Amino acid sequence: MPRASRDGPQNEIATPARYTVTLGGTSFTVKYLRSHGYMSTPPPVKEYLQDRMEETKELITEKMEETKDRLTEKLQETKEKVSFKKKVE
Question: What is the domain count for the chain?
Answer without folding.
Answer: 2
